[in-house]
Amino acid sequence: MTIVCGDSHTSTHGAFGTLAFGIGTSEVGLVLGTQCLVQAKPRQLRIHISGTRAEEVRAKDIILHVLQRLGANGAAGYFIEYAGLWWKI
After folding, report:
1. What's the pTM value of the predicted model, to 2 decimals?
2. pLDDT attached to residue 10
3. What are the distances in angstroms from CA 36 to CA 8, 13, 29?
4. Sign of CA dihedral 79, 83, 87, 89
5. Distance CA 64, CA 22 (A)
6. Cα dist. 77→21, 44, 50, 72 in Å?
7. Closest of 28, 77, 85, 20 to residue 51, by C-alpha
8. From the centroid of its chain, how far is CA 11?
9. pLDDT tens profile 45-60
């Protein structure tokens, strides 16, 4: 499934096993009227997280570290796949 949404939280829809795109207000009207939206194919980025974590380190700490390393626009235009053992947190 693909979701488009004029909302800054669109990227959280990946939790539903979807591809999610944040779009502008004029594009929202286009989608509502046509049920279509032409998009360029994003590049792929896999972030592999591994190693031993301290007990006090949580998922949010790990993702904040990833964001710090990438920077504000470090993954703009990418689909991101998280890999590794991070889900065992």
Report:
1. 0.61
2. 64
3. 20, 19, 10
4. negative
5. 21
6. 10, 9, 25, 12
7. 85
8. 4
9. 999 988 888 889 888 8
